[in-house]
Amino acid sequence: MVIPTARPLTRILGLGFGLAIAFGGTVGVGILRLPGTLAAALGDSRLIILFWVLGGVYALLGAVAVAELAAMLPEAGGFYVYARRAFGNGPGFVVGWSDWVNQVASISYASLTASVFLGTLWPATAGAPRAVAIAVIGVFTALHWAGLRMGSMLTNLISLTVGLMLLVLVVGCYLSPAVGASTAPPSIASAASLPLMSLRCSQPW
Q1: CA 171 to mean position of chain CA atoms
Q2: Of 65, 77, 90, 157, which has the most beta carbons under 10 Å away?
Q3: What is the 3-state secondary structure (H, E, C) of the chain?
Q4: What is the mean pLDDT of each run of 10 residues along the chain (205 residues)?
Q5: pTM to 2 decimal places
Q6: Contact, 56 vs 62, CB < 8 A?
Q7: In terms of Cα–Cα distance, which of 55, 2, 61, 65 is closest to 28?
């Protein structure tokens, strides 16, 4: 019996793609929708900063843990590889499929967000957000299907564009004139309106 020799994969993706995919996975589309919702729910600037810091620390710890696992087990498969090594084939199978479903849900959320923003810029598309979201997924699927180099260039371009827009936003925040603090009480649905939070947030730091 002749055992076929394994063919090594062609190294096409480089450091730039790795940085772009890491940046895109860290920032994600949630940065466009969730901060305003969370800020409205918290109702206090100090709480908002606190939760941003806690979220950053949590993300950093997760990144360090996954980096260590990837260095120890340099295999394709993501979390499936780590769960299989730690708990066996059964739990690894469940974790692998759960990770796949999570990726699909992330793509769906991103496409729906894109359709909502596109509806704001182009009102004609606002009436069918699901159809627009499916079309967005179809366009990106076709672009990635064209080849690995095309997909890599697209990922680099999108990550660079998002990074530049965030940089412009930060600079614009510093250059914009200051607005006086509002004396309106926090919303009833906000965390700052709760007794414990309202007591602490009313005291200056």
Answers
A1: 22
A2: 77
A3: CCCCCCCCCCCCCCHHHHHHHHHHHHHCCHHHHHHHHHHHHHCCHHHHHHHHHHHHHHHHHHHHHHHHHHHHCCCCCCHHHHHHHHHCHHHHHHHHHHHHHHHHHHHHHHHHHHHHHHHHHCHHHCCCHHHHHHHHHHHHHHHHHCCHHHHHHHHHHHHHHHHHHHHHHHHHHHHCCCCCCCCCCCCCCCHHHCHHHHHHHCCCC
A4: 58 74 71 75 83 86 87 85 89 90 85 85 84 90 83 82 82 77 59 47 40
A5: 0.65
A6: no
A7: 55
The first and second tokens of residue 13, run together, are 């993706």
Of 205, 163, 198, 152, which Cα lies nearest the Cα of 44? Answer: 198
How far is residue 148 from each of residues 87, 116, 145, measured CA to CA in Å?
Answer: 33, 29, 8
pLDDT at 188: 57
- String of b and e for 151-177 (b: at least 16 CB within 10 Å)? bbeebbeebeebeeeeeeeeeeeeeee
How far apart are the C-alpha atoms of 139 and 202, rounded to whole Å? 50
Q: Say how many Å lie between the first and final Cα of the chain, rounded.
A: 75
Contacts of 73 (CB under 8 A, 6+ apart): 81, 82, 85
Distances in whole angstroms, Cα of residue 16 to Cα of each of 13, 49, 87, 150, 159: 8, 31, 34, 14, 10
Cα gap 188→197, rounded to integer Å: 12
